[in-house]
Amino acid sequence: MTTHPDPVRDTPEAVPATPAQPVQPYPAASAGQADWADRVDTVPRAEGTPEELQPYAELGLRDDEYDRIRHILGRRPTQSELAMYSIMWSEHCSYKSSKVHLRQFGEKAPPSDRLLAGIGENAGVVRVSDELAVTFKVESHNHPSFVEPYQGAATGVGGIVRDILAMGARPVAVMDPLRFGAADHPDTARVLPGVVAGVGGYGNCLGLPNIGGEVVFDPCYQGNPLVNALCLGVLPVSRLQNKAAVGPGNVVVLMGAKTGRDGIGGVSVLASATFTEGSEQRRPSVQVGDPFTEKLLIEACLELYDAELVAGIQDLGGAGLTCALTETAAAAGTGMRVWLERVPLREPSMDPHEILASESQERMLLVVEPAKLETVLKTCEKWGVLATAIGEVTAPEPDGQPGRLLITWRDQLVVDVPPGSLVDDGPVYARPMREPADLILLQADRAETLPRPSDPDALRETVLRMIASPNLCDKTWVTEQYDRYVLGNTVLAQPEDSGVIRIDERTGLGVALSVDGNGRYARLDPYHGAKLALAEAYRNVVVTGATPIAVTDCLNFGSPEDPGVMWQFAEAVRGLADGCAELGIPVTGGNVSFYNQTGAAAIHPTPVVGVLGVLDNVAERVAMGFVPRPSGDHDQLFLLGETHVELSGSEWAWVTHQHLGGVPPQVDLAREKQLGELLAAAARVGHVSSAHDLSDGGLAQSLVESCLRYGVGARIAVPERFEGTSMPFVFLFSESAGRVLVSVPRGHEKAFTALCAEHGVPWELIGVTDSTGGALEVHGQFRIGLDELREAHSATLPALFGGVQPVELTVQDSAVEAAPVDAVEAPVEADPVASVEDAEPHAEAVSDGVESPEDDRPVERAAPPVRQQPIEAAGEQDTATDAPQGQSSADER
Amino acid sequence: MTARVGVVTFPGSLDDGDAARAVRIAGAQPVRLWHGDPELHGVDAVVLPGGFSYGDYLRCGAIARFAPVMETIVDAAAGGLPVLGICNGFQILCEAHLLPGALTRNQHLHFRNRDQILRIESAGTAWTNVFQPGQEVLIPVKNGEGCYVADPATLDALEAEGRVVARYVGVNPNGSQRDIAAITNPAGNVVGIMPHPEHAVEALTGPSLDGLGFFTSVLKHLVGAPA
């Protein structure tokens, strides 16, 4: 399959005075030279026709941007050059609106000795051991996925996988945070199944386990679904690749699929403009994926890396060849000479500007030493991957200036540009920003004032309704369509809090990954919303026992031309950068997606944050499900962190009252860090048998999920200070951050609580697991059988999207489920829950006079005390005095 | 002497490394075989792994059956070489006519990945001899085209000859006729199975260790088999 083109032999100085050997690989296109000369806008022609009108505005360039291009070139651009500038200076490629804000990620980044490659590379690379490094990044493919859900989502996976591959890594897992419009909207029934099938179709065929993600519904995403894709890769430290086109004389090789007309203008047309009526017409802008070719591309590239045959490599994604040629040359300061007609084409009638703009998938650009070219082509041939020498790296200018990019098309010079002018010298805008006018009113409309369930029956009904709501329900309908087993290193996958992948079978070294976001929180407060997303992803990683080391982000926003959106963006970036500095982990790379807006209606600002952690031995990882115990035995359930009356932006407010208002839960990253250190220490010594993050849906959701995982029930006692009227509801549904539900095996309680005290983490014993009861029981409130919970939890998506039955029980589950469910009333004296209540300290005064005029929330807060010994603390009213050094009760904050 | 078990890599094979790992954990030496190389390098048994050989854009396995290595395997299977086809491997065995019937698109049209209970119906094959007939095992299933179909006469013959090796228990994950998950040839040396035993060989990464039995079976078979 590999083509062996004419050797690249011309020196750049010879162009265009002495044109390259004429190459005419496609007889079908053998039109007369004169015809081509008529059609192709060459550099000499551009010089001779300065007044010719050009469609720059239609390509998305502003008047001043077009003038700038003319200034850079000293003439009008050719058609091909105009296409290249319009793509590279589009929002998607140039980050022209976001650049001024994204700088904070670098400026505020904590020092890290693990970082081998950071922002600006295809993906960040962090060292995880002496020999191994991992690379990961999350990217958006939102706009294509609305236009053509299957291919849009599929090529989203393909694109991020190539970014990871370009760093020298073997891709080993993917995750997909997805957001759709209302679950019951007819168009969601078009978009969701297509997106899910696309993510699965591509990832499954590539042999990459899908280990997690999100499925979120909100009407704000109706016309702008968010399809983000994350990929994780592993590489030996010594195999790290670089995109710089180094070494004048080296050969530029295009590898992979043929170039077609698909995806032309994808980034400028789709990703950099707001959807309007007629967006359906944009289907030709969406690329079509071929996962089989990508699989071969992966194997071929890895073989090339291992044989040290590659001097530089870059994937072709958005902006295709244009981006790859200019970025590789600009990174090295070299020039490049490219014979464009050598590019293998799917459609021979393509014009040069189409070839340069095509976003055909499954392509990579290699820079190869001439002596190694033959071996490179042979390796590609072995894997059946097309590889073609299309150009040559040229030296910088004699005066030390970077080299120029010269592209000819059948002997006609069509491009002559300084590559850096496309990559680094694009426009940068400090766009106007203004806090949205409605924000003050929105924040004043607090969900804490909404009517809450206040009797046991209403609470029981609320639990069942909440776990069946689209955002909280079981996502098996989606995740069953993804292969989570392939490659044989998946230690944890959805529905667990994090995906955990073993990366070294010899030592058990592994990584944990979670990706989270909450658009509602960010709508109410983008600064804290971004921090909350970071906190949740961080917490999801630490519950496994892993130590977080790096962050990636995908920032999904509306139009940057709207000052309100720009303000949201700036606030979110500031929040994320500050948050990362507080947690001491750097952002290593990410992606900005603007223009997620239909007409004047923008999506909620949706920063999606991925956190990666390291586990020295994946065998020590902690999962989220309660562990079955022999009859009579049980684990104790501890709630770590503090529960406040925080309902604004919550899932409950949305599901029950369709309400969005108030301010999101407080976030304290120092506390999150303490929690993480505690959980890592507890996992190492085996103090916890399960750990589950609390987030959307609060404690109730986490309890139900932990129960249903292995079919193990639980009995819970509502702490005293949450007794009365609607306070049990607050205990179960508040979305306060910084909380984790853990189960502790018998005999470990004392050591575990001592460890909590050591780390300054507030804890509270709230109940026990119950392997035989077959129910989730909240003392004095309700008892719901696991079957009833499971049915409510798992029926929603199949009912909406059809076809697939709810998940079946495993053998182990069946045994548990078969146990009698009649132990409703346990004898009081033997009831561990009752003894828990006895040991409970009294509630801290709810209204303790620490009211602050600008924030009335403390009045409603009911913070659990921080204690060292539960028994000694029993009956204590004032907990501030026996709080260990360095801790404070929540009301002091 | 350690048994040598070959694992074929076609372009688009995905679970080849996992099959090799399972062979190793079972105590044999995995030998990687290449689709374009007709030589079997003296292996004692062969595993055709899961994946999407040649992209499977045509019928699954329809191109792979013409791979040079398959010609050798078809001949060797006739001579008694134990061959296990997992998922895509099962599809290839059917396309190569080493096993009857075909695997078609799942009835519900979705790819499905779940932990599946199987009942071992035949413990008489080279790949299931460590199991008890009727034993239930937990093995992951993950496929888009795993719906086993054959004409009624073939199905009746498979049943009558004890060549249904495993059946789905509980919900049939893909609509396979008579809940068939695995079948064998008349000699019992060639087995095709839709679920993935190679993904149930480690407590850390699988739902059970039940899959290991398929690989230890072939070692037992090889020890007992005449040289």
Automatic annotation (TrEMBL), chain A:
Residues where Mg(2+) 2 binds: 163, 315
The residues covered by the Phosphoribosylformylglycinamidine synthase linker domain are 52-96
The entry marks the following residues as binding substrate, namely 140-143, 162, 287, 359-361, 593
Please tell me where ATP binds in this chain.
95, 137, 553, 590
What spans are recorded as compositionally biased (Basic and acidic residues)?
A: 1-12
Q: Which keywords has UniProt assigned to this entry?
A: ATP-binding, Cytoplasm, Ligase, Magnesium, Metal-binding, Nucleotide-binding, Purine biosynthesis
Q: Where is this region: Disordered?
A: 1-35, 828-893
Indicate yes or no for the key word ATP-binding.
yes
User: What positions does UniProt annotate as the active site of this protein?
Assistant: 92, 141
Q: In which pathway does it act?
A: Purine metabolism; IMP biosynthesis via de novo pathway; 5-amino-1-(5-phospho-D-ribosyl)imidazole from N(2)-formyl-N(1)-(5-phospho-D-ribosyl)glycinamide: step 1/2
Give the family, as the similarity comment puts it: Belongs to the FGAMS family.
Protein name (database record):
Phosphoribosylformylglycinamidine synthase subunit PurL
User: What is the scientific name of the source organism?
Assistant: Micromonospora gifhornensis
Kindly list the organism's lineage.
Bacteria, Bacillati, Actinomycetota, Actinomycetes, Micromonosporales
What is this protein's gene name? purL_2
TrEMBL record, chain B:
Instruction: Recite the UniProt keywords alphabetically.
Output: ATP-binding, Cytoplasm, Glutamine amidotransferase, Hydrolase, Ligase, Nucleotide-binding, Purine biosynthesis
Name the pathway: Purine metabolism; IMP biosynthesis via de novo pathway; 5-amino-1-(5-phospho-D-ribosyl)imidazole from N(2)-formyl-N(1)-(5-phospho-D-ribosyl)glycinamide: step 1/2
Q: Where is the active site?
A: 87, 196, 198
Pfam families referenced in this protein's UniProt entry, alphabetically: GATase_5
Give the Enzyme Commission number.
6.3.5.3, 3.5.1.2
Q: Which reaction does it catalyse?
A: L-glutamine + H2O = L-glutamate + NH4(+); N(2)-formyl-N(1)-(5-phospho-beta-D-ribosyl)glycinamide + L-glutamine + ATP + H2O = 2-formamido-N(1)-(5-O-phospho-beta-D-ribosyl)acetamidine + L-glutamate + ADP + phosphate + H(+)
Its main localization is: cytoplasm
The compartments listed are: Cytoplasm
The record's SMART domains line, in alphabetical order, gives: GATase_5
This chain's function reads: Part of the phosphoribosylformylglycinamidine synthase complex involved in the purines biosynthetic pathway. Catalyzes the ATP-dependent conversion of formylglycinamide ribonucleotide (FGAR) and glutamine to yield formylglycinamidine ribonucleotide (FGAM) and glutamate. The FGAM synthase complex is composed of three subunits. PurQ produces an ammonia molecule by converting glutamine to glutamate. PurL transfers the ammonia molecule to FGAR to form FGAM in an ATP-dependent manner.
The record's note on quaternary structure and interaction partners says: Part of the FGAM synthase complex composed of 1 PurL, 1 PurQ and 2 PurS subunits.
Known NCBIfam families for this protein?
FGAM_synth_I, PRK03619.1
Q: What is this protein called?
A: Phosphoribosylformylglycinamidine synthase subunit PurQ
Gene name as annotated: purL_1
